[in-house]
Amino acid sequence: MTDSQAMTATQNAIRVRFAPSPTGKLHVGGARTAIYNWAFARANDGVFILRIDDTDPTRSTEENTQIILRAMRWLGLDWDEGPDVGGPFGPYRQADRVARYKEAAEKLVEEGKAYYCFCTPEELEAGRKRAHEAKEEFQGYNGACRKLDPAEAKARVAAGEPHTIRIKVPEGRGDVVVDDAVHGQVTFNAKELDDFIIFRSDDTPTYNFATVVDDADMRITHVIRGDDHLSNTPRQVIVYEALKKPVPTFAHISMILGEDGKKLSKRHGATSVEEYQQESYESEAFVNYLALLGWSFDDKTTIIPRDVLAREFSLNRVSKNPATFDSKKLNWINEQYLLAMTDEEFAEKILGPQLVLAGKEEEGCISLRPEWFALLASVIKPRTKIAGDVVSLTEFLYKGDAPEIEEKAFNKMLAKESAKPSLVAALSALQTLEDKASGFYADAINDALAPLPEELDISRGAFYGAIRVALTGTLVSPPMGEMIELLGCKSTCARIEAALEKIETTA
Ligand code: GLU
Known about the structure:
Number of strands: 11
Bound molecules: glutamic acid
Shape: elongated
Number of helices: 22
Strand order of the largest sheet: 3-4-7
Structural class: mainly alpha
Distance between the termini: 88 Å
CATH topology of the domain at 407-506: Arc Repressor Mutant, subunit A
Helix content: 40-55%
Strand content: 5-15%
Radius of gyration: 33 Å
CATH architecture of the domain at 407-506: Orthogonal Bundle
Mean pLDDT: 94
């Protein structure tokens, strides 16, 4: 594409990229960087690019690339240009762009802005040691090959001599000042910048070079990334200047720390997006939580759905202080997203998929019994913290006609003398109710059972406790009327009869 075509394609739009290295899964910090880039693009009608930084062939894998793409899709972060979707500045995998980096590096050599370096690793090490021992202020590369005659250097390269390519930091360049959108003005001492390597002797580009060539080629206007890259920025500025390309705006976002104040790592629990997905967090809640880890909408809003984020995100509300990952807050936000669903939505999005996954229900179960599932949703939703909880919360439904009864529950509730009359009376009341035309619904069930403890002169606790244990085999259950309605008369009666039998045989 020519420059003028590219100009038309970009139309001065904001263009940002997320550039993960597929050396591992997408972790929480990377996900937050991706979210900020995506939201910044969306809020500004810009373009969001996904680029795979896989120049390190020993540590990058296709499997990790696929895991990252899947995680991005689960997070709902769609990209306008990148792998799978293509775009005008592709390819979008660095491994496919090595020839382009080589061409750019050779051009800099031609222009006298970079040079071949033949210093061996031993020579470089000796130089570093000397400078260190002499406590010299400048301990970087001494520029030995800078002075070589270019024609002679070229001949040595042609003869196959191992070499790297180094960029020339212009003499008298002065300090590099980066105007960071998060950190403000950051000044880097020019004395600490040596002529750094842009191409290694194994013919691979260094990160600082490949990144800048790509960011320039892809017309990136804002580089939003973790502040572990802030220290790379002055070198990247030198590369932009050598390439005669405009320097983008940088925004370096803070680290995410664990609750102990240390950098978030495996020790703190789940760190990859994939793990949160497997633990059945809501993707929108997860994005909401991560977005707030270092950015705020105002000083109080905690629920920011993805579409609001995509409208409201701005760099000037990004904090430069490290953020602390607080799983309790994440869980709370997740719960709010679940509670905000209607019963029908909860059935469709949470109950159905989770119960099918757990092998308890068949695909399409919701459409066969929508009302039953809506009732189940109304009972289970307030008790659900993450989607996967519904499997244990609904376990009582899938225990067959004679649930196994926990010993503790049996001893506490069914070993009492009052248990048998309670169950017999409940059984008869429920069967009578089933025969009536009014129907077997929670309210009617509660009404039918309510007078019985007094009639039997048994405490409510003992009466309902016996039914609960008979129906679930445990001491805890959802509210009685709803539970019995969900089980249906046939199963409820069968369970009560099985419990009565157990009482007989145990007596
Ligand atoms: N591949 C680099 C990383 O994952 C990208 C850094 C950048 O955004 O420049 O850290």
